[in-house]
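Worked example

This section walks through a single chain of length 273. The input is the sequence exactly as stored; nothing has been trimmed or padded.
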Amino acid sequence: MTDEKTPGGPSGQDLVEQLKASGQLDALFEQIDEGRVELTGDGGFVPALVKAALERGLQAELTSHLGYGKGSEDASKHANSRNGTTPKTVQSEVGPIALDVPRDRAGSFTPRLVPKGQRRLGGLDDMIISLYAGGMTIRDIQHHLASTLGTDLSHETISNITDAVLEEVAAWQARPLEEFYPVLYLDAIRIKIRENNQVINRAAYIAVGVDLGGVKHVLGIWVQDTEGSAFWAHVCADLANRGVRDVLIVCCDGLKGLPEAVEATWPDSMVQT
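Given that input, the structure is written out below as tokens.
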């Protein structure tokens, strides 16, 4: 998150500093220090603050949809009107938030702040993806969210979130490439990954291309058990199939068979260690 100011107004940090200077936050901080107020989780201060902000925004959306404010004298002139609220709980990165979503009598109101059918706020998905990328299993993530945020997500929900990322990774891995790169770097590094509840070593094959403007692009990453020239031949063929027709200089290490794999794909390229 950034600390940008809205046009003509103070930033969020400016407002916090003003409240601190006025002493209006002292009583709250004392209760937090004494453990009488929880910041996150069920009944926490931050979820309550987010709830108030979201519900205020939803009411503002409904006002815009109806064309008049709550309690307005002009309400009788409009065919549509407010019709109470519907309870809805959304999971967030600060814990579960129980919302009262306003309704209209015609049933035509479609909230944009918290769309219909949405049960998670965006930040929670980002947190799950970050934990998964860090090597935590789905069960670990489930326990972590429950113990730290009080957020109870099913194994299937977390799996669906991580699977959506894997689909994006697959699309990125297969994306079309430029026809020509002046310089192509090929190298493999050893990385540790979690597999079947064990941390094991794997070889990550990495191809980095430098375009005509001098900008480096990661063209692909492939993870295998070990590094070998046979798989490098597969990497070169994959790059060629995705559109790379020619390379001027290919920089790589002295792995036996790697220069031959490069030359078989791009015969006119220069291999440089």
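What to look for: The mean pLDDT is 84.
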